[in-house]
Amino acid sequence: MKIQSLSEFLKAKRKEVGLTQEQFAIKSGIALTVIRKVEQGKTNLQMDKVNHLLLMFGHELAPVRMQGLNKNEFK
What we know:
75 residues, mainly alpha
């Protein structure tokens, strides 16, 4: 199973519902610059803003303990 990156996931979901980045920013109330940073895979993001975007699609980020996970799943 391929694990999708956050940037790939949000971009695909946004396109699935037919929104441009600008429309997504307006609808979500999150700045366009943040949307762009997320979709570009930037790493210095605020988790609350990312979760706000993810919640629009019924998802959210949560901490995961690496202990007990198969590390090969992430390749």
